[in-house]
Design goal:
The chain has about 475 residues and is of the alpha/beta class. Helix content is about 55%, strand content about 10%. It contains 19 helices and ten strands. The strands form two sheets. Strands 3-4-2-1-5 form a five-stranded antiparallel beta sheet. Helix 8 packs antiparallel against helix 9.
Length: about 475
């Protein structure tokens, strides 16, 4: 305790010249040698230290308990549950397409082309709408209406709305599977000479190849390894599918029109539900591009690894708002890939953007009275943006930030802003103290601050580890899911 007090006096004396970055110098170990709760020197809680560190529950290593944790928090994650709901709903609807009466000798029925085409159009429309910024904002806004006096269990469920990507991916997979069935039916029609237009076959082959390419490149492991390939395939193949869908819709309508009666082409087309769904899908694909604009950007290099971009409007991610309302904000960009490296090395004066700002996982902090935000590196960008807004809200926020040389890498201004939004922020310099156990520190901060939830903003491996480890210990933890 004497060593601890002397270190406190040194830190306090240095604080007159600069805000101290600390953490690991404030250590207290009890008899069981557990890790300490790290705190900023100005928020030193002597009573807490005297009581000893908070107990960090260990996990049972028996294979059945490990299997339960894996199934509960990995297999049945919110994302996968939403995926299964859409997939099972499609199976239930498909039952009416393929099964007649199981009491009859022939109970299997080949679905009609129009039924399958409508089912494909519904799933494609759903997958498109579930990625549109304005509809995503509506989902989040509805969840924000849940009051604080609602049970915490309910608020914790609705805080997982950011996993809506499970609905998007399920709709896309179901559309691909249904179109594969449609391809099989059309090939059978060609084999029986009931269809003769080669354009139908060509359009069908092109669409089914593009849909499977989008599904395969969107598989998590492939997407993480070849992310640029995933982005290009998803964008260009998606647009190509919509164009070819219209071509196939035209030739199929011509074929059906000659078989079903004297009605005009327009009358047949407007009676088809998939036509109107394609109209809505096409409209929503082009709508965000109507807000394509070029934003002036002022670059502020913070170090050779990080740059801060000041913009005149709020970005959909990692935006730190300016003090004056409605005046825009800034982004923190760190070297994490080819685009970020190019931005740091030679920043532009203008950048293109489209659509409207979209809310994300950290926006769900306002469902709770008290939260802990755990972040590493440049994750302080979205964290600082959220904490800045929470200052004007009822929600109180406690920040745990681990970074390599925070002052040298991100600058004195960022550190000062962090301490302004949370005077008790925990800032750890990993160059000096090494990488801390973020799971244990987050748990101790969660208990000490009597928080209702923990939010994690870090790289994929750290985020998934913290969310899983905390969730399996009964702590509601949330973090990005990298589904795009």
């Amino acid at each position: 305790m004497e060593a601890y007090t002397s270190e406190m006096s040194i830190s306090s004396s240095n604080s007159s010249t600069e805000s101290p970055i600390l953490s690991a110098t404030q250590q207290h170990y009890d008899s069981s040698d557990r890790h300490p709760l790290l705190a900023h020197p100005d928020s030193y809680d002597e009573d807490f230290v005297e009581k000893g560190a908070i107990y960090f529950p260990s996990q049972r290593r028996f294979i059945l308990f490990r299997l339960y944790r894996f199934i509960r928090y990995r297999v049945f994650s919110t994302y996968r549950v939403l995926f299964c709901i859409v997939f099972i709903a499609n199976l239930y609807v498909a039952r009416h397409f393929y099964i007649r009466d199981i009491s009859q000798p022939v109970w299997f029925a080949a679905p009609s082309i129009l039924d399958i085409s409508n089912a494909v159009a519904v799933n494609i429309l759903g997958s498109i709408l579930l990625r549109k910024d304005y509809l995503v904002n509506i989902f989040f806004t509805i969840c924000w209406w849940i009051p604080f006096h609602a049970p915490v269990r309910i608020r914790r469920v609705f805080a997982g709305v950011y996993c809506y990507g499970g609905l998007h991916s399920a709709a896309g997979v179901c559309a691909t599977l249904r179109f594969t069935v449609l391809t099989w039916i059309l090939l059978r029609e060609f084999r029986n000479y009931r269809m003769r237009d080669p354009h139908i076959k060509q359009a069908t082959y092109a669409i089914v190849i593009l849909l499977w390419a989008m599904c395969l490149t969107a598989y998590p492991r492939i997407r993480s390894i070849w992310h640029n390939l995933f982005e290009h395939v998803h964008r260009w193949a998606g647009w190509a599918c919509i164009i070819i869908f219209w071509i196939e819709l035209h030739v199929l309508t011509n074929h059906i029109m000659h078989q079903s009666g004297p009605d005009s082409y327009g009358a047949h087309l407007t009676r088809r539900p998939d036509f109107w769904m394609h109209v809505v899908s096409t409209f929503h694909i082009f709508l965000p591009w109507l807000r394509l604009r070029r934003l002036p950007v002022v670059a502020e290099p913070l170090s050779s690894h990080v740059i801060r971009l000041h913009i005149k409007e709020k970005h959909s991610f990692a935006c730190i708002p300016f003090i004056s309302p409605g005046s825009g904000g800034s982004l923190i960009v760190s070297n994490a890939g080819d685009w970020t490296y190019g931005t740091i090395d030679s920043p532009r004066k203008h950048y293109w953007t489209r659509g409207i700002p979209t809310v994300g996982v950290l926006c769900m902090t306002q469902l709770f009275r008290r939260v802990v935000i755990v972040t590493t590196g440049s994750g302080i960008g979205p964290t600082l943006g959220t904490a800045s807004r929470l200052r004007h809200n009822v929600t109180s926020c406690h920040i745990l930030w681990s970074a390599s040389g925070p002052r040298q890498t991100f600058g004195e201004t960022i550190v000062k802003e962090v301490l302004e939004v949370d005077a008790k922020a925990v800032i750890i310099d990993t160059k000096v103290f090494g990488r801390p156990d973020l799971v244990q520190l987050a748990y101790e901060l969660y208990i000490k601050s009597n928080a209702e939830a923990v939010f994690v903003v870090s790289n994929k491996a750290t985020t998934q580890k913290c969310v899983f480890e905390l969730g399996s210990r009964g702590v509601p933890a949330y973090g990005p899911i990298w589904d795009s």
